[in-house]
Amino acid sequence: MLRTDLVPHTDFHRGYWYKSNLSDWYYFKEYNRDFKITKNFRYDLVDKDLLPLVKFLHSHNIPTTPSCSGHDYPESYFKSLYEKIKIEEYLINNIGLKLTNIETFEEIEFQDSLYSFIYSEDAFLSSIKDYSKYGILGIKGNFSYINSINNLNVLKDGDITLFHAVKDNKKVWNELLSVFISIWEH
Predict the structure, then answer these.
(1) Considering its fold, how many domains does the chain have in total?
(2) Distances (CA, A) of 156 to 12, 47, 55
(3) Gap between the Cα atoms of 88 and 69, Å rounded
(4) What CA–CA distance (Å, rounded) separates 22 from 88?
(5) How confident is the model over 7-28, as pLDDT tens digits?
(6) Which long-range contacts (C-beta less than 8 Å, at least 24 apart) are formed by 142-149?
(7) What residues make up the domain containing 35?
(8) φ and ψ at 184, to 5 degrees?
């Protein structure tokens, strides 16, 4: 079953993300999985504020999980996104919507005549702006000792360490990169 709600950032690593060609909305499928660095990893899909950190971690053989740097889009962006999501809802109800797994490139068709996007426009717009400001990056291994960066919450979930940026995200990601660089310089 695909989820179309605002998946908690701390759950981003608990499955796969699927995207259509119509919008910037992602559909989530919970799946117990392992994380590895693949030779066909799509760095072009990594948010630019996270890209140097992800590349650095991968260069040191540390796998990363699905992530988001956090975004500060204007309300007009979210209104347009909502309109596209409603078009996708129509397609899902009638002919199906082709989705692509952004990691494995598996293509699926999401078709369900009873599907309805969970949010009204007002509910979506009142939730999405704050939700989208937060960032998350999971990495395989225990790095929970890195916990002194302002505006960064560090959590553990099994063998995954989650770095959850709650403010000043670009600065947070740069500071986290600096910490990792200092670890490997010694």
Answers:
(1) 1
(2) 13, 22, 22
(3) 25
(4) 8
(5) 999 999 999 999 998 999 999 9
(6) 146/176, 146/179, 146/180, 149/175, 149/176, 149/179
(7) 2-185
(8) -85, -10
